[in-house]
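User: Fold this; tokens only.

Assistant: Input:
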Amino acid sequence: MNKSELVDKVANAADLSNAAAQKAVDALIDTVKTAVSSGDKVTLPGFGAWSRTERKARMGRNPRTGEPVQIAASKGVKFTAGAGFKSAVKS
């Protein structure tokens, strides 16, 4: 499912126009991005949680030459599925 299909499903499920559903989906995505990028954890009970992860700097190897390479510290995003989401997928 892509974003436009998601917007259509939200519009039908919530009895909204496609424009209103588009605004709602965009607002949700922007809110989650803003919160997680500032270090907050976003939790939707029964669905899941997004959080920011910190990766420390480390040494790696160039697979072609075998030379050691310094890998810089970075930040990432982690999504953890909630119990309700996991059980819906299993059944």
